[in-house]
Amino acid sequence: MDKDHGILQFSTGLLDFFELPKSHVPKKLDDLFGKLPLGLITCINNNLEHVEIVPIVSKKGKQRWIKVSLFPLGNESPGFQIFFDDVTEDKEHYELALEAKKIAKIGSWKVDLIKNSIFWSKITKTIHEVPPDFEPDLEKGINFYKEGEHRERIVEAVSACIESGKPFDVELIIVTAKGNEKWVRSIGEAERSNGKTIGFYGVFQDIDEIRREKLKNEELNNRMRAAVQSAQIGIWDWDVVNNHLIWDDNMFTIFDIDRDEFKEAYKAWESALHPEDKERATHEVELALEGKKDFDTVFRIRKQDGSIAHIQGRAQVFRDGNGKPLRMVGINADVTKLKRKDERLRKLLDLTEKQNQKLLNFAQIVSHNLRSNSSNISMLSGMLLSNIVKKERDKFLDMIHTSSERLEETLNQLNEIIRIQETRYSDLHEVKVLPILENVLERINATIVESKAKVCIDMPKAIRVIGVEPYLTSVFTNLLTNSIKYKSSQRALKINIKAEILGNQTVIGFEDNGLGIDLEKNAKNLFGMYKTFHNNEDAKGVGLFISKNQMEAMNGKIEVRSTVNKGSTFYLYFTNNE
């Protein structure tokens, strides 16, 4: 091309490059891409080298970017050589990269230690919330980092980069020019010459949203992990296709199994299942895989110490497009304590129902006696008001006195039964048995001496039961005085008191060689109200009724074995702590 932009010669590829017909012969540079850029014209006029990327619209109406390289031929041959390269694709990639940087909030920076200058890109300045004309230096740049740990870490990273060329990649908090705290990521590389760092450069990214979301997720994960740990929840994942089961650490803890003991978690699970629940639990897994039922069940396991635990199992099955099961993910939770509480609550409800029924029966009986006594007193007092002789008046007064005593006795009995019914499970506590028994024996010592009874005690000193001390005193007193009251006239009275622990129960037995009871005839009424079985004038038929109520109020029970003319043994059963 000459200085007047006239084309002197061109390669065969030029026409194809500019999408021109084969017969076309371009005369001027303007014929190729229209109006020339000012920079290119200036360099042509001054005979200078020049490279410029010029936008053009192709003959097909598409945007193109052409790299124009201008080289002077020299003073001997005035004119220029021009090379054209299509950089449209590179330009698009570059612009996409710029847009990606903008979206990702990634800026660049460079520190020149020789000139003691810093360059910040536009995005870097935007992140720092400084104006476009802001002139940074190294000290200002470092002071943007939050005082304390964050500033100390960037100083340490920059110092290591300057001293030894060590690159850095840190995530820290800056305080922007507007006072906003922001998480950023700074990546730096050293520029070295002759073993010394002459500068360093890198990128700067705004990661505030990402980092805060990450921190929030970490906090949620930590809370979830703590909740799972404290709730003793184990998580498992079963690859159904490859038959591979994975347990987390909590699962091994819940099942009381050493991780190294089993190579396969599925075998560990099977080995721990209670024999009575194994078939049911595995069948419910099969039903879940077949889609017939959700896996939500409770099964028992046997731990290494022989104890039984109740496990709540829940899971979800993941399937492919055809409904074939791929994975089964679930949780296991130890619900033994809840199960026991539920059982205790059920027992308490049953006990309450029984006590309410007993109280109703008792109220009917006492109501009858109250009406009898009150009617008798009313009738006798009415007779007193009549004109009767003194001798009959005294007789009626004596009868009124007797009826009033019986009325008072009935009211006292009613009060005692009501007090027993009001006993709460929380009132129970662990008490020593032997001191209470010794105290009862001391209180009825005169009666024992008078009856010439021999009392033998076979009981560990440390034995304890869960109960209420006044109730134990009352039950022991009733049983001992009954043995004395119903002793045989044909032999010396012997009372043997023995205590032992059987499983989760403590059993105390009161054995005597007295008259005994015909259980075939009286078993149903033995602990009934006002039921007596011998012609003893002191018998009221209340003691055993009260004793049974007191034992049940202490979550225990009372039973009897007896043979007529041989004696009776009353057994007291107390439930130990679980």
Structure description:
It is a single chain. With 578 residues, the chain is an alpha+beta fold. 42% of the residues lie in helices and 27% in strands. It contains 18 helices and 20 strands. Strands 5-4-8-7-6 form a 5-stranded antiparallel β-sheet, sandwiched between helices. The longest helix is centred in the middle third of the chain and has 49 residues. The termini are far apart. 19% of the residues are buried.
Strand-helix topology:
Elements: H1 13-17, H2 30-33, H3 38-45, E1 50-57, E2 63-72, E3 80-86, H4 88-103, E4 106-112, E5 117-120, H5 122-128, H6 138-143, H7 149-164, E6 168-175, E7 181-193, E8 196-206, H8 208-230, E9 233-239, E10 244-247, H9 249-254, H10 265-272, H11 275-289, E11 295-302, E12 308-319, E13 325-334, H12 336-384, H13 390-421, E14 429-432, H14 433-443, H15 445-451, E15 454-458, E16 464-467, H16 469-485, E17 494-502, E18 505-512, H17 519-522, H18 543-553, E19 557-563, E20 567-575
Parallel strand pairs: 15-17
Antiparallel strand pairs: 1-2, 2-3, 4-5, 4-8, 6-7, 7-8, 9-10, 9-13, 11-12, 12-13, 14-16, 17-18, 18-20, 19-20
Helix pairs in contact: 12-13, 13-18, 14-16, 16-18
Principal-axis shape? rod-shaped
Largest sheet: 5 strands, antiparallel
Poorly predicted ranges: 530-540
Please state the structural category.
alpha+beta
Count of DSSP E strands?
Answer: 20
**Radius of gyration in whole Å, from Cα?**
51 Å
| Terminal-residue CA separation | 105 Å
Strand neighbour order, sheet with most strands? 5-4-8-7-6
Q: Assess the beta-strand content as a share of residues.
A: 25-35%
Total helix count?
18
Helix content, binned percent:
40-55%
Q: Roughly what is the average pLDDT, rounded to an integer? A: 81
